[in-house]
Specification:
Keywords: Decarboxylase, Golgi apparatus, Lyase, Membrane, NAD, Transmembrane, Transmembrane helix. By secondary structure, the protein is α/β, with parallel strands linked by helices. The protein has helices spanning 28-39, 41-59, 74-84, 90-97, 123-134, 189-194, 196-217, 253-273, 297-306, 326-338, 355-365, 390-396, 404-436, and strands at 63-64, 71-72, 114-118, 138-143, 162-166, 179-182, 220-226, 277-282, 285-286, 311-314, 320-322, 324-325, 345-347, 352-354, 372-375. The strands form 5 sheets. It has a 7-stranded parallel beta sheet, with helices on both faces. Strands 1-2 form a two-stranded antiparallel sheet. It has a two-stranded parallel ribbon with strand order 9-12. The N and C termini lie far apart (139 Å).
């Protein structure tokens, strides 16, 4: 008789030929999802954020484009801002879409750019650096101090948004920036004639290096060219479409032709490599921090009048120039960089003065008894120079605001302090040496 194995505490279970699962409970999937989201709080926060963002953009009112009269929403405004300034973050463009006045709402700061200024310790460059730092950008100054001076940017030492690199742009440089203002080059006849080979290398090789940098890192590049590209012009006033009348083998060619080549390189990189470029043709500029003895007519006259020396006029004094104050130029450069037009653009004051008229203004400002002394004219000196700034007015909304009679006293004050301050220091040093001896 067979035995049976029985398990304690277990009753025999009836067998069934069919399987019948438990009936589904209503809302079981929903309750499981809720429990999961409560355990994973981060996911809950993400979903809530998406819901809030969807709600905000759904009720955001459309705004009217004042220039075209058509309705635009936040996305189209953001896209247009990004097209105007591709280096500006999209988030910033979205902020601007809430404010049609172009101003940043209270409590929200503009995102600063990282900018390199070659020749930033020079006369124009240092004033440009001041403006960029003041508006919240981080600035890297690159200068070899051939004509630049540390004193021009020393007031920024200690500022965490300011850096100074002693470097010659003829040698390659690796940086990560959003914009490049390329100002590096001696700009006065005394300086660029002193070493003409170095001058043309700066214009050509230096510009190549900075354009190559702009291409590699995707930065916007602004070249400061010059009115000297027009040479001794046969067209007056000079417009940007005029090709100029330049002596390619003259004593000024290292600068004139160097800048013309720099413009060529800039446009070739723009057309061939897609680099965002801007070109400014700068006319005679004056103001504080100019080199005192750089051979340019305004600084010559001011320094001579302060030192009680005759004002030296070359030739018959009927050559004409136009003079813009440095703050006007800086405003034009920034507008050009931030705008959407390549250029070239003339940046200068169309107010035209002969050299004799300028000498008389300096006499009125400094010393009415200052004498005028005539000397033989220099080689290749242009007879007339006056910019046509119609293009800058229409496309950049820019025009100079400071007249010569208003700007000259500010320059004179700076020159007086530097000239007589230096003299006092020299006299004090001489007295100390004599006493010690």
């Amino acid at each position: 008789m067979g035995s049976e194995l029985t398990y304690r505490r277990h009753e025999p279970q009836p067998t069934s030929d069919s399987y019948s699962p438990k009936p589904n409970k209503p809302w079981l999937a929903v309750t499981r999802l809720v429990r999961y989201m409560l355990r994973e709080q981060r996911l809950l926060f993400v979903l809530v954020g998406i819901a809030i963002a969807t709600f905000v953009f759904a009720i955001l009112p459309s705004s009217t484009d004042t220039s075209t009269g058509r309705m635009t929403d936040a996305y189209s405004v953001s896209e247009s801002v990004q097209m105007t300034n591709p280096r500006r973050p999209v988030l910033h463009a979205g902020i601007e879409s809430f404010n049609m006045g172009g101003k940043i709402p209270l409590g929200l700061k503009r995102k600063g750019l990282r900018i390199v200024v070659t020749g930033g310790a020079g006369f124009v460059g240092s004033h440009l650096v001041d403006r960029l730092i003041a508006r919240g950008d981080s600035v890297i100054v690159v200068d070899n101090f051939f004509t630049g001076n540390k004193d021009n940017v020393m007031h920024h030492f200690g500022n965490p948004r300011f850096e100074l690199i002693r470097h010659d742009v003829v040698e390659p440089l690796l940086l990560e920036v959003d914009q490049i203002y390329h100002l590096a080059c001696p700009a006065s006849p005394v300086h660029y004639k002193y070493n003409p080979i170095k001058t043309i290398k700066t214009n050509v090789v230096g510009t190549l290096n900075m354009l190559g940098l702009a291409k590699r890192i995707g930065a916007r590049f602004l070249l400061t060219s010059t009115s000297e590209v027009y040479g001794d012009p046969l067209q007056h006033p000079q417009v940007e479409t005029y090709w100029g009348n330049v002596n390619p083998i003259g004593v000024r060619s290292c600068y004139d032709e160097g800048k013309r080549t720099a413009e060529t390189l800039t446009m070739d990189y723009h057309r061939g490599a897609g680099v965002e470029v801007r070109i400014a043709r700068i006319f005679n500029t004056y103001g504080p921090r100019m080199c005192i003895d750089d051979g340019r007519v305004v600084s010559n006259f001011v320094a001579q009048a302060l030192r009680k020396e005759p004002l030296t006029v070359y030739g018959d004094g009927n050559q004409t120039r136009s003079f813009q104050y440095v703050s006007d130029l800086v405003e034009g450069l920034i507008r050009l960089m931030e705008g959407e037009h390549v250029g070239p653009f003339n940046l200068g004051n169309p107010g035209e003065f002969t050299m004799l008229e300028l000498a008389k203004v300096v006499q009125e400002t400094i010393d009415s008894e200052a004498k005028i002394e005539f000397r033989a004219n220099t080689e290749d000196d242009p007879h007339k120079r006056k910019p046509d700034i119609t293009k800058a007015k229409e496309l950049l909304g820019w025009k100079p605001k400071v007249s010569l009679r208003k700007g000259l006293p500010m320059m004179v004050s700076d020159f007086r302090q530097r000239i007589f301050g230096d003299q006092k220091l020299k006299e004090s040093a001489a007295t100390t040496t004599t006493t010690t001896a």
